[in-house]
Design brief:
5-stranded mixed barrel; about 20% helix; alpha/beta; about 20% strand; about 325 residues; 7 helices
């Protein structure tokens, strides 16, 4: 038997009330066209510090964003209390499309990628020439992540008064990566910061490096008004630095031309699980032309690989091929597990 008349749209149709309120449920989300634009400066336990115009605003992510997370460098849309007053909280309702992404995994066996920084256009890889000893493989991995994420690399070598940079620079000479060599004395008198600053003006630069290389000290010198709370030292027994930066932080450069520096936590490993092995060769432009004669689907670590002949003919440094194959071998071990 028909429960309602011929016109089910009439007022006699019963509507089940919403137990949580009077408004009916809907899947239509607000567009927040009046939201204000901001930039994420740092993230701390679900609270995001953002710059909106000239105000620093604390915000949280809206539920409608689901699992999508905002990271340092993201351009976001905010609603709510944007005064920046103490104990106020805004809401991030939209994350704008990213121009670049620096990603890493904890190691090569970790399937979960972590977005470290968004919208940076340069990656400064800071490495000490001694105390602690340089780690070329970590530099290689950072370069792979930079090229894969759309960032231009910059190599910053510190503590050259303890060890010469010639061997390390020769290893990366064919890549054409710009570099800066500094001493501890230059760090103290500000000369190092001035030289590095020339490469940062008008750009957003993320700084990465393992602990103890002077990364945060350099950032402190570049942005003296927004110093980090502390800097670390190198353990005399292990030769490793202590983590003093626990979260990424974006800091504005002073001057008319502007720019941003983003200090990131010190890393002891840089996993590349998120990078397609076929794209790793793009981080080695001195070797890439030699792959034209490789067999189809060549892994670049097999007897018929054309890179062996390419290097033997003197087109590239053999150390670069060793570095490439070490990265690929690590990936292959993971894929075969």
């Amino acid at each position: 038997m028909r429960r309602y008349g011929k016109n089910p749209d009439e007022d006699d149709v019963r509507v089940r009330p919403n137990r949580k309120g009077n408004r009916p449920r809907t899947n239509i989300r607000p567009k927040h066209e009046d939201a204000s634009e901001g930039m994420v400066l740092t993230v701390d336990r679900g609270r995001l510090t953002c710059l909106v115009d000239d105000r620093v605003v604390v915000a949280m992510k809206a539920r409608e964003l689901g699992r999508k997370a905002a990271v340092v460098g993201d351009r976001v849309a905010l609603v709510g209390d944007l005064s920046g007053a103490r104990d106020t909280l805004a809401r991030i309702v939209r994350i704008e499309p990213r121009t670049s992404v620096l990603r890493r995994t904890a190691d090569d066996d970790d399937p979960y990628e972590r977005v470290v920084v968004a919208n940076a256009d340069q990656l400064a890889v800071v490495t000490a020439l001694a105390d602690p000893e340089p780690r070329p493989r970590l530099i290689d991995r950072c370069l792979v992540a930079a090229f894969d994420g759309g960032l231009d690399p910059l190599l910053v070598l510190t503590k050259s008064d303890l060890a010469p940079p010639d061997e390390l620079l020769a290893m990366y000479g064919a890549l054409g990566v710009p570099y800066i060599v500094t001493t501890r004395e230059e760090f103290e008198d500000g000369v190092a910061a001035d030289r590095v600053l020339q490469h940062l003006v008008g750009r957003t630069t993320a700084f990465v490096g393992h602990s103890g290389v002077g990364k945060t000290t350099l950032v402190n010198a570049l942005v003296p008004k927004d110093r980090r709370r502390s800097t670390g030292h190198v353990n005399a027994v292990t030769g490793r630095g202590r983590h003093t930066t626990t979260s990424a932080l974006a800091l504005p450069l002073t001057g008319n031309d502007g720019g941003w520096v983003i200090d990131t936590p010190g890393v002891r490993s840089f996993g590349l699980n998120h990078v397609d092995p076929a794209r790793v060769i793009h981080a080695f432009p001195d070797l890439e032309p030699g792959t034209e004669n490789c067999p189809r689907a060549c892994s670049h670590d097999e007897p018929d690989c054309a890179l062996d002949a390419w290097v033997a003919e003197g087109h590239a440094d053999p150390a670069r091929l060793v570095s490439l194959r070490r990265l690929l071998a690590t990936r292959e071990r993971h894929e075969g597990d």
